[in-house]
Amino acid sequence: MTKQDPEPDIGSLETEMNRGFLHILALALLEKDMYGYSMVKHIETLGYRVEENTLYPLLRRLEKNGWIASKWDLSEDRPRKFYAVTPEGRALRASLLDIWKIQDRILDKITKENAHVQ
Amino acid sequence: MSNKLEAYLEEISHFLSGRAEREEILSEIRSHILEKAAAEHGGTGDDAVDLAIAAYGPPRRVAERYAEDRPIIAPAYKRYLFRYTTLLFAVHAAMTVFAVIFKKDFVIFPFLYMPRLGPIEAAMYLPMAFLADLGLVAVVLYFVTQSGKDVKLPWPKIGVDLDEVKPPKKAFWGRVGTAVGAVVMLAVTDIALYIFTRYHTIFLYLTHGSNPKPLLTPEAGRYLSLIVIASLAVSTMALLVKLFTRSRWVDIVSNVISLGLIGLILRQPFDNLFAITVPEKLLPVVKANIKVVLLIIALIVTYELVRDIVRVSRSKLARSVAQY
Q1: How many domains does chain A have?
Q2: Best A39, A52, A77 residue to mutate vs chain B (most B CBs within 10 Å)
Q3: Which domain holds residue A102?
Q4: Quick one: which of B56, B149, B256, B316 has the most CB atoms within 10 Å?
């Protein structure tokens, strides 16, 4: 990188990368029933952070495609919308995880090759 | 229930308008904010809800996260918006010139009806025609985009792309040219002003061995002189401003003012114009020629105006695509 090169805009690249990751993350988390806020908090305990206003549109898209299902629980003081993965969602999750593993393996190989070159 | 929460949801609802699942979306957000306020800020009072709302984000941004529709015009077709508009407007402008010169209506069924126009109407009509052409092309591209099909739109290949964006001229020589132009225009404007203050007109003719005499009648001479001086001053100002900025808006503003000034001249009936004797037979020809010349100038200014608007729009589009 030369002196003239601008600082890389990691923010927008991270958003791009997160888009796919969040799909897998949500499909993986929803193996057990969870509501939106509990998902946000659980993800935080794993050392990651998802914007609240990003999660709900994502869940809506997943549900629209039949990969998750939802139902309102009105038994508590406050109504909560619980989500759970569907069989179609599980199949999608498996496919996405396969892709992710292949990508991870390729990047790992290249990183090792680069280390060897240096 | 917090009024602030309801007001916040109302704002989101406004930006979500048209979505069938709007109420469901608002219920999800309401549930989340109340949950967060209670868990993290000690209850669902106004202060706690305020904090949860602040963390959730501005209403418009929240609503935009739900947008997953196709773009109005697909990125691949965006450049055709300006390509086709330019072509269509060129046809429109040519038809306008014919309609004015031949004093006839023109119809290209079913696309275009060009009524018989006078020079003033034509000058007023062209900017509107450009907007109509832009709108028509946008509607066509909208339907192409919404069809979801990979439509390959035609565009002539003549060696280079007709709308290829040329690299900007070298800044230094460009500025030297602008500076020289500004000095010349300043001198011309000053000379015109000097002549006007001395003779109350800039339209003079010289006869051998006598003082300059006015070419036009006093009233027409003063009125037209002021318009020409104003036009010169605008051009001079534009050149001076362009020494400090390369913004195309300078040209756009300058050309809009120039079009207005040309319109003012064209409004003149051109009767009782000359202070000198013009043969009766020659008068209609002279008047027609003045109008044609002014119309050609108006067309050139309109062309430059449209070109600059297209370029400004295109550079904005390029920036938005780069950000995307």
Answers
A1: 1
A2: A52
A3: 12-117
A4: B56
